[in-house]
Amino acid sequence: MTESHFFAHLSRLKLINRWPLMRNVRTENVSEHSLQVALVAHALAVIKNQQFGGELNAERIALMAMYHDASEVLTGDLPTPVKYFNAQIAHEYKKIEQIAQQKLVEMLPETLQNAWRPLLDEKYHSAEETALVKQADALCAYLKCLEELSAGNNEFRLAKARLEKTLTQRRSPEMDYFMAVFVPSFTLSLDEISQDSPL
Fold it and tell me: Is 189 contained in some domain?
């Protein structure tokens, strides 16, 4: 049996910090961000199905979201202002991401590759699935901004404004629902979110 370095690579996602050009009150790594995106993407899919007549596979979307930044273990996390500086850079970086996704799949034993390829390789994602994961990704970045601003870090003020525009562009009924029901709590203290549900 041949050894695989797939999960050893993925375990290093916790070593890649997000928001590398900005001062953070609390550093966020790619591993924890991926979990939060998976939680939010799953919620958006469930909301779409339960509230708005969708027929998405919420569990598949959660897994897609969990792996959505996995390629960064090979590429690193390129800061957003650099990644989207112009269309050519964005296009070339997308090609690099796709090569990294394929490289990760190839790290798996051949008999397991077909199980992970649809999660890692964006070519296997429908437009609706991709849009929902991107919504969750943007929402989680926005939540990070709220948390930093709530802690008095104005470094995230312009990032919040930029993400509000992104969220408007990616707007959907399920996102509006999530924003109305769940997002306000992210600006509250632990005491404030705990007062209605004491142990």
Answer: no
Mean pLDDT over residues 71-79, rounded? 82
Q: What is the 3-state secondary structure (H, E, C) of the chain?
A: CCCCCHHHHHHHHHHCECCCCCCCCCCCEHHHHHHHHHHHHHHHHHHHHHHHCCCCCHHHHHHHHHCCCCCHHHHCCCCHHHHCCCHHHHHHHHHHHHHHHHHHHHHCCHHHHHHHHHHHCHHHCCHHHHHHHHHHHHHHHHHHHHHHHHCCCHHHHHHHHHHHHHHHHCCCHHHHHHHHHCHHHHHCCHHHHHCCCCC
Give the phi and the psi of residue 29 in degrees, each rounded to 5: -105, 170
Domain-located, residue 73: yes
How would residue 197 be classed by pLDDT, with cut points 50, 70 and 90?
A: low
Radius of gyration of the chain (CA): 18
Number of domains the chain is built from: 1
Q: Which one, of 80, 86, 87, 72, lies nearest residue 156 by Cα?
A: 80
Task: Note down the domain range covering 80.
Answer: 6-183
pLDDT at 28 over 90: yes
Give pLDDT tens digits for 30-44.
Answer: 999 999 999 999 999
